From TrEMBL:
Mediates both low-affinity uptake and efflux of sugar across the membrane. Mediates both low-affinity uptake and efflux of sugar across the plasma membrane. PANTHER family: RAG1-ACTIVATING PROTEIN 1, SUGAR TRANSPORTER SWEET1. The keyword Repeat applies. The chain crosses the membrane at residues 12-36, 48-67, 73-95, 107-130, 136-155, 176-197, 203-220. This is Bidirectional sugar transporter SWEET. GO terms for cellular component: plasma membrane. Pfam families: MtN3_slv. Keywords: Cell membrane, Membrane, Repeat, Sugar transport, Transmembrane, Transmembrane helix, Transport. Signal peptide: none annotated. GO terms for molecular function: sugar transmembrane transporter activity. It comes from Ceratopteris richardii (Triangle waterfern).
Length: 259
Protein backbone atom coordinates (compact mmCIF):
# COMPACT_ATOMS: atom_id res chain seq x y z
CA UNK A 1 0.00 0.00 0.00
CA UNK A 2 1.44 3.39 -1.07
CA UNK A 3 1.51 6.00 1.68
CA UNK A 4 1.52 9.77 1.27
CA UNK A 5 4.09 11.99 2.99
CA UNK A 6 1.94 12.67 6.08
CA UNK A 7 1.20 8.98 6.55
CA UNK A 8 4.85 8.07 6.13
CA UNK A 9 5.86 10.72 8.68
CA UNK A 10 3.22 9.54 11.18
CA UNK A 11 4.23 5.93 10.69
CA UNK A 12 7.90 6.78 11.18
CA UNK A 13 7.19 8.68 14.41
CA UNK A 14 5.06 5.86 15.79
CA UNK A 15 7.70 3.38 14.65
CA UNK A 16 10.36 5.27 16.61
CA UNK A 17 8.08 5.28 19.68
CA UNK A 18 7.54 1.57 19.09
CA UNK A 19 11.31 1.07 19.01
CA UNK A 20 11.64 2.78 22.39
CA UNK A 21 8.82 0.73 23.93
CA UNK A 22 10.19 -2.48 22.45
CA UNK A 23 13.64 -1.63 23.80
CA UNK A 24 12.09 -1.32 27.26
CA UNK A 25 10.42 -4.70 26.66
CA UNK A 26 13.74 -6.27 25.76
CA UNK A 27 15.32 -4.75 28.89
CA UNK A 28 12.50 -5.80 31.22
CA UNK A 29 14.08 -9.19 32.06
CA UNK A 30 17.20 -7.46 33.45
CA UNK A 31 15.95 -7.44 37.10
CA UNK A 32 15.10 -11.13 36.76
CA UNK A 33 18.61 -11.98 35.61
CA UNK A 34 20.16 -9.86 38.35
CA UNK A 35 18.32 -12.18 40.74
CA UNK A 36 19.52 -15.25 38.84
CA UNK A 37 23.14 -14.07 39.09
CA UNK A 38 22.70 -13.15 42.76
CA UNK A 39 21.12 -16.52 43.60
CA UNK A 40 23.50 -18.38 41.26
CA UNK A 41 20.41 -20.36 40.28
CA UNK A 42 17.42 -19.94 37.95
CA UNK A 43 15.09 -21.32 40.67
CA UNK A 44 11.49 -21.20 39.38
CA UNK A 45 12.18 -18.99 36.34
CA UNK A 46 11.70 -20.48 32.88
CA UNK A 47 14.09 -19.95 29.97
CA UNK A 48 11.47 -20.78 27.33
CA UNK A 49 10.08 -17.21 26.94
CA UNK A 50 13.53 -15.88 26.06
CA UNK A 51 14.12 -18.51 23.38
CA UNK A 52 10.69 -17.79 21.90
CA UNK A 53 11.45 -14.06 21.96
CA UNK A 54 14.70 -14.77 20.11
CA UNK A 55 12.83 -16.68 17.40
CA UNK A 56 10.31 -13.85 17.13
CA UNK A 57 13.07 -11.24 16.81
CA UNK A 58 15.04 -13.11 14.13
CA UNK A 59 11.96 -13.58 11.93
CA UNK A 60 10.90 -9.93 12.27
CA UNK A 61 14.45 -8.86 11.36
CA UNK A 62 14.08 -10.64 8.02
CA UNK A 63 10.50 -9.40 7.54
CA UNK A 64 11.56 -5.78 7.99
CA UNK A 65 14.37 -5.90 5.42
CA UNK A 66 13.76 -4.51 1.89
CA UNK A 67 14.14 -8.02 0.44
CA UNK A 68 10.80 -8.94 2.05
CA UNK A 69 8.83 -5.75 2.78
CA UNK A 70 9.64 -2.16 1.86
CA UNK A 71 9.52 0.78 4.30
CA UNK A 72 9.72 -1.44 7.37
CA UNK A 73 13.34 -1.01 8.40
CA UNK A 74 12.33 0.18 11.90
CA UNK A 75 10.98 -3.32 12.50
CA UNK A 76 14.39 -4.80 11.67
CA UNK A 77 16.47 -2.37 13.75
CA UNK A 78 14.73 -2.93 17.07
CA UNK A 79 14.48 -6.67 16.59
CA UNK A 80 18.19 -6.80 15.79
CA UNK A 81 18.89 -5.19 19.17
CA UNK A 82 16.38 -7.53 20.78
CA UNK A 83 18.03 -10.62 19.31
CA UNK A 84 21.40 -9.62 20.79
CA UNK A 85 19.86 -9.02 24.23
CA UNK A 86 17.95 -12.31 24.15
CA UNK A 87 21.17 -14.18 23.37
CA UNK A 88 22.76 -12.55 26.43
CA UNK A 89 19.82 -13.55 28.64
CA UNK A 90 19.86 -17.11 27.34
CA UNK A 91 23.61 -17.36 27.94
CA UNK A 92 23.16 -16.28 31.58
CA UNK A 93 20.29 -18.74 31.98
CA UNK A 94 22.40 -21.60 30.64
CA UNK A 95 25.21 -20.77 33.07
CA UNK A 96 23.01 -21.00 36.18
CA UNK A 97 20.35 -23.53 35.11
CA UNK A 98 20.36 -27.14 36.27
CA UNK A 99 21.41 -29.82 33.79
CA UNK A 100 17.85 -30.69 32.77
CA UNK A 101 16.85 -27.08 32.04
CA UNK A 102 20.18 -26.42 30.32
CA UNK A 103 19.67 -29.35 27.97
CA UNK A 104 16.09 -28.31 27.17
CA UNK A 105 16.97 -24.68 26.44
CA UNK A 106 20.01 -25.66 24.35
CA UNK A 107 17.86 -27.91 22.15
CA UNK A 108 15.24 -25.17 21.76
CA UNK A 109 17.95 -22.65 20.85
CA UNK A 110 19.39 -24.94 18.17
CA UNK A 111 15.88 -25.48 16.79
CA UNK A 112 15.24 -21.72 16.58
CA UNK A 113 18.52 -21.01 14.78
CA UNK A 114 17.87 -23.89 12.37
CA UNK A 115 14.35 -22.65 11.58
CA UNK A 116 15.60 -19.12 10.94
CA UNK A 117 18.35 -20.36 8.61
CA UNK A 118 15.91 -22.51 6.63
CA UNK A 119 13.42 -19.62 6.30
CA UNK A 120 16.05 -17.19 5.01
CA UNK A 121 17.67 -19.64 2.56
CA UNK A 122 14.36 -20.90 1.14
CA UNK A 123 12.93 -17.40 0.68
CA UNK A 124 16.05 -15.95 -0.91
CA UNK A 125 16.67 -18.81 -3.35
CA UNK A 126 13.24 -20.35 -3.96
CA UNK A 127 10.85 -17.37 -3.83
CA UNK A 128 11.39 -14.63 -6.42
CA UNK A 129 8.36 -12.36 -5.90
CA UNK A 130 8.73 -9.97 -2.97
CA UNK A 131 4.98 -9.96 -2.10
CA UNK A 132 5.11 -13.74 -1.83
CA UNK A 133 8.13 -13.48 0.51
CA UNK A 134 6.20 -11.02 2.65
CA UNK A 135 3.26 -13.46 2.89
CA UNK A 136 5.44 -16.43 3.85
CA UNK A 137 7.66 -14.62 6.35
CA UNK A 138 4.75 -12.53 7.66
CA UNK A 139 2.69 -15.66 8.38
CA UNK A 140 5.61 -17.19 10.27
CA UNK A 141 6.03 -13.92 12.17
CA UNK A 142 2.39 -14.08 13.29
CA UNK A 143 2.95 -17.57 14.70
CA UNK A 144 6.22 -16.53 16.36
CA UNK A 145 4.74 -13.27 17.65
CA UNK A 146 1.76 -14.98 19.25
CA UNK A 147 4.14 -17.60 20.64
CA UNK A 148 6.30 -14.87 22.17
CA UNK A 149 3.36 -13.21 23.87
CA UNK A 150 1.89 -16.55 24.92
CA UNK A 151 5.16 -17.97 26.30
CA UNK A 152 4.66 -16.39 29.76
CA UNK A 153 1.31 -18.19 29.93
CA UNK A 154 3.33 -21.25 30.96
CA UNK A 155 4.26 -19.29 34.07
CA UNK A 156 0.65 -18.15 34.51
CA UNK A 157 -0.34 -21.75 35.20
CA UNK A 158 2.10 -21.75 38.11
CA UNK A 159 0.67 -18.43 39.29
CA UNK A 160 -2.85 -19.88 39.42
CA UNK A 161 -1.61 -23.04 41.13
CA UNK A 162 0.54 -21.25 43.73
CA UNK A 163 -1.76 -18.20 44.03
CA UNK A 164 1.37 -16.04 43.93
CA UNK A 165 3.00 -13.80 41.29
CA UNK A 166 6.51 -14.32 42.66
CA UNK A 167 7.82 -15.80 39.39
CA UNK A 168 5.80 -13.64 36.96
CA UNK A 169 7.57 -10.25 36.68
CA UNK A 170 5.16 -7.31 36.42
CA UNK A 171 7.59 -5.30 34.24
CA UNK A 172 7.63 -8.01 31.57
CA UNK A 173 3.83 -8.37 31.48
CA UNK A 174 3.35 -4.58 31.30
CA UNK A 175 5.90 -4.23 28.51
CA UNK A 176 4.15 -6.95 26.49
CA UNK A 177 0.84 -5.09 26.71
CA UNK A 178 2.18 -1.62 25.84
CA UNK A 179 4.39 -2.98 23.07
CA UNK A 180 1.43 -4.76 21.46
CA UNK A 181 -0.70 -1.60 21.48
CA UNK A 182 2.06 0.55 20.02
CA UNK A 183 2.86 -1.74 17.09
CA UNK A 184 -0.85 -2.23 16.39
CA UNK A 185 -1.07 1.51 15.78
CA UNK A 186 2.00 1.38 13.52
CA UNK A 187 0.46 -1.51 11.55
CA UNK A 188 -2.89 0.26 11.11
CA UNK A 189 -1.32 3.25 9.34
CA UNK A 190 0.30 1.08 6.67
CA UNK A 191 -2.39 -1.62 6.83
CA UNK A 192 0.25 -4.25 7.58
CA UNK A 193 -1.98 -7.20 8.39
CA UNK A 194 0.87 -9.36 9.67
CA UNK A 195 2.07 -6.81 12.21
CA UNK A 196 -1.52 -6.06 13.20
CA UNK A 197 -2.54 -9.67 13.92
CA UNK A 198 0.65 -10.56 15.79
CA UNK A 199 0.67 -7.48 17.98
CA UNK A 200 -3.11 -7.37 18.44
CA UNK A 201 -2.92 -10.84 19.92
CA UNK A 202 0.04 -9.66 21.97
CA UNK A 203 -1.95 -6.79 23.46
CA UNK A 204 -4.77 -9.15 24.45
CA UNK A 205 -2.42 -11.71 25.99
CA UNK A 206 -0.53 -8.97 27.81
CA UNK A 207 -3.81 -7.71 29.25
CA UNK A 208 -4.66 -11.22 30.48
CA UNK A 209 -1.30 -11.41 32.28
CA UNK A 210 -1.91 -8.06 33.97
CA UNK A 211 -5.38 -9.20 35.03
CA UNK A 212 -3.91 -12.33 36.58
CA UNK A 213 -1.27 -10.24 38.32
CA UNK A 214 -3.98 -8.01 39.82
CA UNK A 215 -5.93 -11.05 41.06
CA UNK A 216 -3.02 -12.79 42.77
CA UNK A 217 -0.91 -9.81 43.83
CA UNK A 218 0.09 -10.12 47.47
CA UNK A 219 -0.31 -13.89 47.55
CA UNK A 220 2.36 -15.87 49.38
CA UNK A 221 4.21 -18.48 47.33
CA UNK A 222 4.22 -22.00 48.87
CA UNK A 223 8.05 -21.85 49.02
CA UNK A 224 7.92 -18.71 51.15
CA UNK A 225 5.08 -20.10 53.26
CA UNK A 226 7.10 -23.25 53.99
CA UNK A 227 10.21 -21.20 54.74
CA UNK A 228 8.25 -18.97 57.11
CA UNK A 229 6.85 -22.07 58.80
CA UNK A 230 10.34 -23.49 59.26
CA UNK A 231 11.62 -20.16 60.54
CA UNK A 232 8.68 -20.11 62.97
CA UNK A 233 9.61 -23.54 64.28
CA UNK A 234 13.22 -22.46 64.71
CA UNK A 235 12.10 -19.32 66.53
CA UNK A 236 9.85 -21.41 68.78
CA UNK A 237 12.76 -23.72 69.63
CA UNK A 238 15.01 -20.78 70.45
CA UNK A 239 12.29 -19.21 72.61
CA UNK A 240 11.76 -22.46 74.53
CA UNK A 241 15.50 -22.85 75.04
CA UNK A 242 15.85 -19.27 76.28
CA UNK A 243 12.89 -19.80 78.65
CA UNK A 244 14.51 -22.92 80.06
CA UNK A 245 17.81 -21.11 80.52
CA UNK A 246 16.12 -18.20 82.30
CA UNK A 247 14.21 -20.65 84.54
CA UNK A 248 17.44 -22.44 85.38
CA UNK A 249 19.17 -19.18 86.24
CA UNK A 250 16.24 -18.17 88.47
CA UNK A 251 16.30 -21.51 90.28
CA UNK A 252 20.03 -21.25 90.88
CA UNK A 253 19.64 -17.73 92.26
CA UNK A 254 16.82 -18.88 94.56
CA UNK A 255 18.96 -21.77 95.74
CA UNK A 256 21.79 -19.43 96.64
CA UNK A 257 19.42 -17.09 98.49
CA UNK A 258 17.97 -19.96 100.52
CA UNK A 259 21.42 -21.17 101.36
Amino acid sequence: MALNHAEMLSRTIIGIIGNVVSFVLFLSPVPTFFKVVKWRSTRGFSGVPYVVMLMNSTLWIFYGLPVAVSHNILVSTINGIGAVLELIYISIFLIYANSRERRKITLLLLAVLSIFTIVVVCNMFLVDAMPRRAEIVGSLCIVAGIGMYAAPLTIMGNVIKSKSVKYMPLALSSAYFINGLCWCTYACIGLDIFLLIANGAGALLGASQLLLYAIYYGGIHPEDREKAKQDGHELEKITVQETKERSGDAERRNGKDNY
